Amino acid sequence: MKNIVIAAGYATRLGGLTRNFPKPLLKIGDNTILGRMLDDIDCIPDIDEHIIITNHKFAPIFEEWKEASHYSKPITIVDDGTETNETRLGAVCDLLLAIDHLSCRKSSDAKWPDDLLVVAADNLLFFSFQEFVDFAKEKQTSCIMCHEQPSIEKLQRTGVVELDAQNKVLGMEEKPQAPKSHWAVPPFYIYLEKDLGLIRHSVENGCGKDAPGNLAHYMVDRTTMHAWPMTAGRFDIGSLDTYREAVERFG
């Protein structure tokens, strides 16, 4: 299984802090946002490589970070070629770029095709991704995460899923005005190799490009998926205020 980290955004809501520096590499205590996530994922036996998709502006910074890192699994930095927020590819297109990058290695890499763990790089998590991987192995389907969100206002700003008693996804809506459940979807996914054909043709078949949840919504309508209820919380760093709060609380 490859760990694909979507880290090509420009984090404009953090102002000058990320004007010339990538948000995932901001410090929380003595580690970075991304480093805290990889410390967990790197320990999962199923993971054999970390692939980090970034933009052309921040790629050299990620390469420098990579050289100073000491993870047990190899790290590959993929540059998506963009240099501004206005020209960004969007998370779905960045994932497609990662899949194309892996496909180019297919003839020489016996480990590819492979399943994919896809994660956003701007969250602090208080559970292990090992639980998510184990859930996907049990269900033998592509999977998303979910957590209970009591606030209707917050549900209206995210993806929302309906589940059956076995956590099979019955339907998903993006930013619904009238949410059909309290199950919100954070940006963490497992896509099995058997579903990668659907992903490859998602954008040309009308899937939105910008948010990773666009792809999950597209896939739910086309293949069987299950949702793993998170066993602990997460802290989403989306603004300057939330970054300062994270440093104060967890640094």
Plain-language structure description:
With 251 residues, this protein is an alpha/beta fold. It is built from 8 helices and 14 strands. The protein has helices at 33-41, 59-68, 91-103, 129-139, 152-155, 196-200, 212-220, 240-250; strands spanning 2-6, 27-28, 31-32, 49-54, 75-79, 116-120, 123-125, 142-148, 159-163, 169-174, 183-185, 188-191, 225-229, 234-236. Strands 1, 4, 5, 6, 8, 9, 10, 11, 12 and 13 form a 10-stranded mixed beta sheet that branches. The chain has a two-stranded antiparallel ribbon with strand order 2-3. A two-stranded antiparallel sheet has the order 7-14. Strand 2 (27-28) and strand 3 form a beta hairpin. The longest helix is centred in the middle third of the chain and has 13 residues, at 91-103.
